[in-house]
Structure formats: C-alpha cells, structure tokens
Specification:
This protein has 375 residues and is mainly α. Among the domains are: 127 residues, Serine Threonine Protein Phosphatase 5, Tetratricopeptide repeat, CATH 1.25.40.10; 87 residues. It contains 18 helices and no strands. The relative contact order is 0.06.
Length: 375
C-alpha cells in the first residue's frame, strides 16, 4: 500500500511537471524577469503605436500572472489615460479610476509587509501622479495638487530605499520642473526656489537608465525643451521618437508644436497636416449601410469618439500656418471647414477660444483678398 502511494505521488509530480503553463499566479512580480519585462515592453510599445487593444491584452496578461501586484493595474490605468487624451474624451474614466484605486491598494499592501519596498513606493507614487494629472486636466485643481504631493512623497521614499530605481525619476523630474514653472513668482522664497535644472537632470537620468520609462522620460523632456524654447533639441528628439513610433500621434503633436513655436510655418504645416490625416483615417465617414445600424457603436467604439476637439486643434494651427505663409485662399477654406463641424455643446465650450480665433482668421484672410467678411 505504501509503495502504491509512493508511485501515485511520483505520478502526480510527473503529471504536474508536464504542464508548466498551469502554474498558479505568483503574489508579486519580479520586475527584472525577462518574460515580465518583455510583456511590459510589448504593452508600452503598443500604447505608443496606439494599438490600444494589444496594449490592454499585454497588461491584462501581467495582471493574470500576479493579481495582487500593483504594476499591471497601474499600466492599465496609464493605457486608459492615453486613450482619453488621444480622443479628448473621458470614456475610459471609470476603468481609469478603478485601476488607479487597485494599484494604490496593492502597493500599500506591499509597503505594509515591507517598509523598504522601493518598487511598491514607485507604483504608489506613479498612481497618485497619474490621478493628479487627470484631475488637473478636468479642472479639479485641489485634488490634483493633493495627489501630486502624495506622489512626490511616495517617489522620494522609492529613491531613498533604492537610489538606482531610475524609473522613479520620470515623475519626480516632471514634478520638480513643472512645479517650478508654476511657482515662478515665488522663486525668491527659500523653501520654493527654481528646481527646473534638477528636474531636467532627473528626466535625463531616467531617459538613459530606467527600465520601463525611457520613452516616457523622452516625451517629458521634449515638452520641457519646447517650454524652454530649445526648439532644435525638441525637434531632434521628436523626430527620432516619431520614427520609432510612426503609427502614433503623440510625438507628432510635439514635433508640430516645436515647429510652430519656432515660427517654422512650413514644417509646422506639414506636421499638422499629417496629424489631421491620421485623425481623419481614424474617423472615416460612416458607410451608408451603417447609418441606421443600431449596433454600430458597439462594433466600432473609437469611430464614435470623434467630438472634433483634436481636429479643431489641428486645423486651427493649419489655418494659422497657411495665413503666415500667405496662402489666404487655403486659409479661408480651412476656417470654413472648421466652422462646418457638427459640434456638441461641450466641445463648443472647450474650444470656444479656437473657434473665435478661427472666425477672426477667416475675416482677416477675406480682408487681405479684398472680399470682406460675409454678413
């Protein structure tokens, strides 16, 4: 009988070893593990390429490997935030908040079991930071400030316990730079000061040495270079990143902005025209067979996200470039296109300045051509 039990036990061991993919999920991830790193890289790459379904699939795989680890939930939240920024819509807000909440919960649990867990502090700080950005974008400044301060505190703990955790320097560097920009009038105070150079140095460190955040650090630096009027540096990096992710638009927006702020109307025009082309490819007109299709929105969610916000943003800058290049007829046509968009009230309100500017530009172009504004 004992011999039979031994044989049965041996058989079970052999059987279990034959199914390595059926192993139970682990509690926490090993962020240095090559398989885990590759999943993160694939998800981040898909996100920058705007292949959002693939990015979500990769981050869900990470969650399935360690359901109590904060990392997968944080990256899912960042994916949803990227989608909302891309479409200028809050359609993923519920998913964003749920994953931020879960990431914070599991990061705090890790910290309770290990007060020196630098990675847990990193994801706790990044979760607060992502929420701060989203809240500020919605105009909830007090919540944004509060989450920003909590993010800074957690990230300082991360680098305190592991100075080589360079991924933490992306958010820290961004905080130090942009907080200094916002508080410029208070630099003379000893407890405020100008920490822009410190912030830039931290982002450059993350760009060079972080595991998961090199492209995010580069993106942050590009916008800082634009703000600092270092346009050639911004253009150089934006071009390099756009070549790396030609399918996406985020670095193309930065490139167009850098050219525009530099008064390089020709290159700015080409960049904004490329953005407009990509947006219009994403939102083609509905086919006749889809006009009255009750399940159209269920089958093609992104096609119904076109609130024209980004197209107005893009076309307004195109119209300005055309005007400054002396192409007044094309400027008039672009302004009239903007004025023809069927906008909802929210978009009208959010883009009221650009819409007023479009009308002024249209009138100026008509005046230059001696036609006068039509009443």
């Amino acid at each position: 009988m004992i011999q039979h039990k031994k044989l049965l036990f041996l058989f079970l061991l052999i059987l279990l070893s034959s199914f390595p993919n059926q192993a139970a999920p682990q509690k926490y991830l090993d962020y240095q593990n090559e398989e885990i790193k590759n999943l993160f890289y694939e998800g981040i790459d898909a996100c920058f390429r705007e292949d959002y379904p693939l990015a979500e699939e990769k981050f869900k795989q990470i969650v399935s490997k360690a359901p109590q680890d904060p990392a997968g939930y944080f990256f899912k939240a960042m994916l949803y935030q990227a989608q909302m920024v891309d479409y200028e819509s809050d359609y993923k807000e519920k998913d964003f908040y749920e994953n931020i909440k879960t990431a914070k919960k599991y990061a705090q649990e890790r910290i309770k079991s290990n007060k020196k867990d630098a990675w847990a502090y990193l994801f706790l700080g990044n979760a607060h930071g992502a929420k701060a950005i989203y809240e500020a974008r919605k105009g909830n400044w007090w919540s944004g400030l509060n989450n920003g301060l909590m993010a800074k505190s957690a990230l300082k703990e991360a680098v305190k316990h592991d100075p080589g955790l360079y991924d933490a320097y992306v958010a820290l560097g961004s905080y130090h730079y942009w907080a200094s920009v916002v508080t410029k009038a208070l630099w003379w105070l000893p407890f405020v000061g100008d920490r822009r150079e410190e912030g830039i140095a931290e982002l450059e460190l993350a760009q060079e040495k972080s595991i998961y955040s090199q492209d995010a650090a580069t993106n942050g630096l590009i916008w800082i270079y634009i703000n600092e009027k270092k346009f050639d540096q911004a253009i150089n990096w934006a071009n390099r990143m756009q070549n790396k992710y030609p399918q996406g638009k985020s670095f193309l927006w930065a490139l167009a902005t850098a050219y525009y702020e530099k008064f390089d109307w020709k290159d700015a025009l080409l960049s904004y025209q490329e953005i407009a082309r990509k947006i219009q490819l994403e939102f083609p007109p509905k086919a006749e067979s889809e006009q009255n299709d009750p399940v159209y929105s269920e089958r093609s969610e992104s096609k119904n996200l076109n609130n024209y916000y980004n197209l107005i943003e893009c076309k307004f800058h195109i119209a300005n470039c055309l005007f400054n290049l002396g192409k007044f007829k094309e400027c008039i046509l672009t302004c009239e296109e903007i004025q023809s968009y069927p906008l909802d009230e929210r978009t009208k309100d959010r883009q009221k300045d650009k819409l007023k500017g479009t009308k002024r530009l249209w009138e100026k172009s008509l005046k230059v051509l001696g036609r006068g504004a039509e009443k």
